[in-house]
Each structure stands twice: as structure tokens, then as C-alpha cells.
Request: fold
Amino acid sequence: MNAYIISIGDELLIGQTTNTNAVFIGEKLSEININIIKIVTVADDESSIMDEFKLGIEKSDLVMVTGGLGPTHDDVTRTCVVKFFDTELVENEEVLENIKMLFSKRNRELTEVNRAQALVPIISEPIKNTHGTAPGMWIEKNNKLFIVMPGVPYEMKAMMNNFILPKLSEMLKESGIAIKRSILQTTGIAESTLSERLGDLDKILDGAKLAFLPSIVGVKLRITVEAEDEEKAKNKLVEIEQKIRTKVGRFIYGTDEETLEEVVGRLLIERDMKISTAESCTGGLIASTLTNISGSSAYFERGIVCYSNASKVEILRVDEDTIAEHGAVSMEVAMQMADGVKSTSGSDIGIAVTGIMGPTGASTDKPVGLVYIGYCDEKVCTGKKFIFGNERLLNKQRTMQAALNMVRKQLLGISLDE
Amino acid sequence: MNAYIISIGDELLIGQTTNTNAVFIGEKLSEININIIKIVTVADDESSIMDEFKLGIEKSDLVMVTGGLGPTHDDVTRTCVVKFFDTELVENEEVLENIKMLFSKRNRELTEVNRAQALVPIISEPIKNTHGTAPGMWIEKNNKLFIVMPGVPYEMKAMMNNFILPKLSEMLKESGIAIKRSILQTTGIAESTLSERLGDLDKILDGAKLAFLPSIVGVKLRITVEAEDEEKAKNKLVEIEQKIRTKVGRFIYGTDEETLEEVVGRLLIERDMKISTAESCTGGLIASTLTNISGSSAYFERGIVCYSNASKVEILRVDEDTIAEHGAVSMEVAMQMADGVKSTSGSDIGIAVTGIMGPTGASTDKPVGLVYIGYCDEKVCTGKKFIFGNERLLNKQRTMQAALNMVRKQLLGISLDE
Reply:
């Protein structure tokens, strides 16, 4: 099956918005073996959109359209769909109910323009928008599939995950070749070191494919295996995963889309332990990331964002003399913060960070990117020094990931030096 | 002048690489008033590329191509250029010198495949690659301009900045039309309500363009104005901005790429005020967002992530009976949290949030998405109830934005009911 992706929006053409929708759709369709032949971006302009609809239907089996479904005058995608398929609009009751529900939930009055969003082309099956008012459209005609979604990324993603991908997968099931993919999530190791430790890849892979996908917080290893059937593909995948784990297992914290905060949360629940955080330079990012997980109140007790020295002393009982002697960014203060938040909160674990995120705040002996992470539990109090880069927001991310990884290693008994 | 951007590369289709090249080129061409009509991504495949070259030349004055110029077998862009323009390759001495120089600099021996990169189509003016071996191509034919660049972002950018953009600007100087753009950032108002409050857009715009760009945290209004010269365009832009501000000014927190956290930070600095945060449901996101701004230690004192009831009582002095009577998610607790963090930290402002982010934690009278935000300063203690959606992470974002917006409104004396 060949797919043609059409992204609609002036903001995508003039470089104001990066087309992450096409990235998401391309990735998800590839995963289910749909071949993307073209990605096109055009303006919110009727004739350009119509031209592209025509090309897409001609050249491919599946046309995926995003954008231009909003309620205002500059959104013309639905009008184009009606013209292209020579159909007409009809008010859909379920869609209208969904719009009404969203408005009443937000305590807002339903406006005429929003009510008009319940009008859908007769030819289409509307796709429920769980996050907004514009419905998607699923159109089957002449053995071709034409799918339209809103351009708002989270609305589009929810439609893809909840409706479109399951339905497409079902349609594709009978096709024949089995492809299996898995991802091993690593952190705390550079792409090149990872590659060196893995050694001769041909020996490990035996025809399968391995991609290194680096990001700010770690390197993902994506393994792709092809076989005659599901069972064989699955077995081969497991075999390759084991070979990789033998070589770099300590750096692998999770699989597929698992995040480090999920893994840490699971480990804490298994051990029936509670954690509290004390953050200076990350400003609350560690606590916020830990509490991104639903149910985190079972193991997250409190977090202190001790930006000022006064807050370090008053809430965490850090010694004023230690700050005066070693500075707020020091191993000594990081350890006292960790110990302080552990004991004042009555938690089993205290994790603390202090550092210089930049671009300002550096001194001769303390460069931008310098971070100390302290960790205390019932048995040990330890810490580690890191030097990250120059970018403030990236440094916050890296510090957060390193702190969570330190908790993971301590819980699993892995040495911090590894 | 109309431009057509063609990006070549399998990795862009399967979602492995985000097409940031097109973003860069789109932005840079827009800045010099070149109108991008389409961005297309195709595979490293001869027939797809040839089709696109044909369409590009037909539909536009300027075709910009990136990618597929590498030395390996899967790079076919140059071959396509030769076929498309029915021309032939010839070794270019300057290009060969550049390649030799790069190799000697890296202490590597020149291979045959790399030497072959010095072959350029006779019809083209080669563009020097200061960071790699593949030259770019500048081709003028039948009043059309056809430019080819490597896909490696820093190689492409250097060619754009050093050669292509200056040359294009020179060519465009005599053309005569000036375009100006600006963005007004709104929050706390839905796209449809914004549209209704603005009313008849034609009256406001008088030929200019207005785009509504919604995101999780607000709607951006992008105004685009065209006039005979820079001065006139600028004046017209200012005029339209003022008309929009008259109608929805209270919802506009900033212009262009300004964020709410920057605006709040600036207002606090101007007033020489300090803020502290008390967060339950957002788990530290408000503090983390405020401290994303370099220099925020000037106005951010501390943040308390009081996830447990114990932490609310111990650190923020919230009354245990109030929690027992009204629940932790209540207006009463939100206000006590705000007051508590203000007074215990000695800050001028305390802002506090408590809510149910979901998917779990709801009860009959307290649904997922329910949030109370409390605000206290020297003069007032106030609060507001919100009901957001079902998605935990989006709810965190929306709560954060609403809290910062409440601080902004209080500092500017704007009513919270508006």
C-alpha cells in the first residue's frame, strides 16, 4: 500500500511551524509497512489543495491530509473535500454532541461557527475528535482511501492512535510478510561508544536492521526484523535483543516507548518506597517529569524548588556555612539537599540537583553545564559530578535524565561509575 | 517570485528525520518576500524526482532542491539534474581543489567516489561547499531558477547564507513589493470566540491577511501585510495591530515569539517583585517554566511541589481541617496554599494550583480536568476555578499557562473574569 501525505497550512510553508505531523504520520505508517511515496505541504488555498488531492488519489492508495479544518475563514480543507468528491455537507448528530459536550465541559457557550463544524461530507465517516471540535473524515471511494485530520498535533495524534491506525492495521493483516520492530532505550552513553561496545553488527543482526536514534536524553536502538510469519519474526527479535543486552545491558533502561520516569516509578512501587526531590538548577523539572505519570502520588511525596539560598537553608536545613565555603553549586550542598529533603519529608529516597544551566552564572572554576547530583536513602548518601553543554533548556533536560538514571541505578544496584 | 521546495531522502518519508531544511529555507525565502507555494518530500528514486522537477519548473519561478548529492549509490539527484536539463557532466577544477583540500585537512586519502563529486553539469554554476564534498548547483534557464543543495543541514545553511540568499536578494531588489509580518500571542480565549469578538475581518484587514494558529496554550494571530514599500507596509501593520488590540487586547500577552513566562518575568522585574509557587497537580511545571528564563533567579524565590497532604500542611501551613472539610482539590486549599507560600517564602506573590489531572482521581463532584488556582499578593487573595480536558499532560500545560496568565492579569490590573 502506497501513501501520500498532504499537510495544509501557510505557517508550514514560511518556516514558522515545523511539520512534525508528517514525521509522526510517516513513522506510524512505516511501522505497519505502508510505503510513503510523497509528503507535500501546500497553503490554505483552494486551487493548490485541489491540485494536490488529485495528484494524491492518482499516485497512491491512501491519501492522508492534515490541517485547515478550523472554524475560521482561512480554513478551506472541508470545502475542498466537498468539491473534490462532488458531495455535500450534512449535520452529524454524534459530532454535534461531541462539540456540545466539549463546550459545556469548558463552561463556554456554543457559537454558530463551532456548530457549523458538525457539518460533515455525506460521503465520509466522521472520526471523533476527543480533544477538539473539528471531526476527522474517513472516505473510501474506488478502492482508494482518503483520510482527513485536523492540523493540531495532539488532536491528529489521538485520531491516529485511537481510530485510524487500528483500522488500517486490521485492513492490512492479510498481506503476508511479518515485520517486527522493537526499541531499546539507552541513556548515559554516547552513540559512538555504544557502537564500539556493540562491535561487529553483522554478527548480532544476521540480516536484521539496527538504527541508532540519538536524542537529548539518550540513544534509542531500533531493531527491525523481517520473516515469513509473526512467530519467526518475534523469535528473531528476542534473540537479537538478548545479544545487544549482553553487550550494553546496563545502559538500557527500557523498551519501546517506555520513559525513564515510568521505569523509576515502577521500581519504586515494587519496593514500596517514596521519593522526594530537591531541585535548584532544574527548577522543578524532575518533580514535574516524575508526576507526568498517572498514579505517581503513590511514590512521589514532595518536591522543593530551592532556587534561593534562603529556601535551601529554611526548608532543607542545608548548612549556611557549607554554602558560604563551597558555594551553592557544590557536591557538599547537593548531598545536604538530598539528605535534607529525605529526612524532612520522611521519604525513603531524596534526590537533589544543583548546577549552572547558563548562559549566565558561570565563574572561572564553575563553568556553564556544571551539575552536582546528590542521592540519599536509608543506607547510603552519594553524589556525582556532571559537565553538560551550553544550552540552558538542554542542560535542564540532561540533568533531569541523569538524576532519574541515578535513582534507577541505585535501586538496581548498578555502580554509578558505569 | 514563487518558489517550490523539493526535499529528497527516504529518511524524511519514514519519520526518522524531521525536515528542518524546508523550515529553514521557507523562513529565509519568506524574509526576502519570496512566496513558497509548495514543499515536497520524495524518496531517493529517479522517477519520483524527475516528476517533481517537472512540476516545480512548471508551477514556479524558483525551484530549491536539497538532498541526494552524496557519493554513494543511493544518491541520484545529480543524475536526475543531468537528465532533466539534457546536459552532461564535466570535472570542475575549483570543486576538485575544494574536495582535495577537505581530505588533506582531515588527513584522509582521496577516494575515487569522492573525486567523482567534482563532476558538475555543464549548464550549472557550481556553489562552493565549505563544509563538505558535494558542490551545490545554480542553474538559470528559460527565465527560471533551479538551485540544488546537499541535504546535510549545516552544508545547506552555509550555501544559503554565503551564496544563495545574497544573490537572490540582489536579483529581487528591483521588484518593488514589501511584505511585513507580525504575530500577536493570545491566551485564555478559544479560536472561535476570538473570531467572533473580532467580528468583520474585512473591515480590520483591508486586504491584509490574518491567520489563526491555535496551540495547547493559546491562539497566535499572524498578520501579513503587503505594500509598495517597507514604510507603508509597516504603517499598515501597526494600524491593523491597533484595531485588533481594541477588540481583544486583554487576551494578547505578547508579540512574535514572546512566551508568557518571559512576559511575566519582565513584569516582575519592572515592579521589583518576587514570586513563589505552590503546586500540587502540575508537579513543578510552573516553577520549571518560570525558571526556563535565564536570569529568573532575580524574581523566582522558591517553589513547593506539595503532592502529599502532609507537605501542604508542614511547609505551606494549610489547615488540616480545611483539607478534611473541602478536600485537597478545592478553592479554599488553593487560596491557603498561595497565601502559605507567599508568607513562608517572604515573596511578594504566591501562586498555587490544585486539581485533578487524570486519568484517575476523579469523584462524582470533582471531574478530571478540575483545577483551582489561588493567587495572593500584599493586597489581595483571590482564586479561580477551571475545567480543562481529559489528557493529563495537556491539563498540566493548560493549568501552567492559566496560572501564569492569572499572575499577568493581576500585575496589569485586568479582571480575572474577562
Summary: Chain A touches chain B through 87 residues (CB under 8 Å). The two ends of chain A are 46 Å apart (CA to CA). The first strand of chain A starts at residue 2 and ends at 8.
